[in-house]
Amino acid sequence: MKKLPDTITDAKLRPIARKVYEGKPVSGADALSLLSTNSVLDLGRLASHVRGELHGDAAYYGVSMNLNFTNICELRCPLCAFSRDEGQPGAYLLTQADMERRVEKAAAAGVDEVHIVGGLHPALPLSYFEELLRSVKRIAPRMFITAFTAVEIDYFSRREGVSPEEVLARLIKAGLGAMPGGGAEIFAPRVRKVIAPKKASGTRWLHIMRLAHEAGLRTNATMLYNHIEKPADIVDHMSRLRSLQAETGGFKTFVPLAYHDGNTAVRARRRVPTGFDEIRLYATARVFLHNIPHIKALWMYVGEKMAQLLLNFGVDDFSGTYSGERVVHAAGAPTADRGSEAYLRALIKNAGFRPVRVNASYERTGRRA
Q1: Beta strand 58-62 pairing with 64-67
Q2: What is the pLDDT of residues 122-145, one digit of tens each?
Q3: Environment class of residue 239 by beta-carbon count within 10 Å: exposed (0-12), middle (13-18) or buried (19+)?
Q4: Do strands 294-295 and 144-147 pair parallel, antiparallel, or not at all (unpaired)?
Q5: What pairs with residue 225 in β-bridges?
Q6: Which of 84, 165, 200, 272 is deepest in the core (most CB within 10 A)?
C-alpha cells in the first residue's frame, strides 16, 4: 500500500487520493469531483501516480499513415465536417490503385502502421475492404493494420446480411490487426440524438466491441467532448467503458477527442477547450479508467504544446505521425496534418519523457524503440 503523500493538499481530494494510492477504483461521484476541481496540480499528482505505476517515464508514439478511403457517407451526422453525399463537391473515393500507391510510398519511408477509416459508402461491398487489407499485406507484410470502427463493422454486417462475427472473422483473415475507437462519440442517447442521430447507438457500439474482443482483436475506445455533453454524460461514458473492460480486457487505449465545430451543424461549447478543460478530462480519465492500460492524446486534436503538458497529467501515448489525416482537419483543426518522427521524439524529450516507438499493439518497432 502506498502512503498518501503530503503533497495532496486539497481536503476534498484526499479521500479520492487515498483510493488511488491504495489501488482501489474510484467511483462515478469521485470522477465528477475530479472533473470540476480547481486543484489541478493535486489532480495531476494522482494521474501521474497511476501513469508512473503503469509506464514509468515512457511516452509511446507511432510512425503511421492515415488512409481515409472515402468521405461519401449515408449517415451525414451533424457533428461531421468530413462526410459528403455522392456527387457533392469535394466528395471522393480512392481507387484501389490510389491506395496501393500510398501504402507503397509509406512502406518505403519506413511506416509501421496504417490507420484505415472512412465514410459509410453504400456501393462498397465487404469484399472491397477484404481486398484492401490483403493488398496492404502484399505490399508491406509487416505493416500493422488498424481499421474500421464499430460503426463500420455494424454497417458492413447490415449491408451484407451477415453477422458482425462473420464480418470480423473475414477481416481478421484478410489482415486486420486492431480496431480504432471511433464512432463512440458520447453514449448518452439524449446527446446522440442531436449530434449523430442515424449512427449506431452507444449500446450497439459496445456490443460490437465486445464481439471484437471475443474475436481476439484489441481496440481503442474514444469519447467526443466539448459539444453539448454534460459532466454526467462523460462519467456515464467512461463508466460503461470501464464495465466492458472488466469483462473482456480488450480495450488497450482510451482516446478523448476534442470536438472541432468548423463546417459542422453542431456548435461547440467553446470554440477551443480551455487548458483546464483538457487537463481535468485527461487526468480524470487516467484515474477513473484504472483497467485500461493507455491514455492517448492526439496531438493533432489538442495541439503540440498541450499534448506535451498532458504527459504530466496521465497521458502516456503521444499518438503518431499520421501522414495525411483528413477527418479532424475538415472540421478546422489548426495543426499540421502530418508530423515527422524526429519532431515527435523531440516534443516528448523536451517534455521530460522517454520516447518509445511502437505499433498499435504497443509492440516496439524500429531501431529507436
Answers
A1: unpaired
A2: 999 999 999 999 999 999 999 999
A3: middle
A4: unpaired
A5: 258
A6: 200
Beta bridge partners, 70, equal: 93
pLDDT above 60 for 173: yes
8 Å CB contact between 223 and 184 = yes
119-146 in b/e form (b: 16+ CB < 10 A) is bbbeebebeebbebbebbeebbeebbbb
Topology (CATH) of 57-357: TIM Barrel (3.20.20)
In order, the DSSP letters of 313-345 are TT--EEEE--BT--HHHHTT--S-S---HHHHH
Q: Which of 204, 214, 236 is nearest to 223 (CA)?
A: 236
Q: Which tens digits make up the pLDDT trace of 297-337? A: 998 889 899 999 999 999 999 998 866 544 543 444 444 44
Q: In sequence order, what E strands does the chain have?
A: 58-62, 64-67, 113-116, 144-147, 178-179, 218-225, 251-258, 294-295, 317-320, 354-357
Q: Where are the domains of the chain?
A: 57-357
pLDDT digits (tens, 9 = 90+) for 229-247: 999 999 999 999 999 999 9
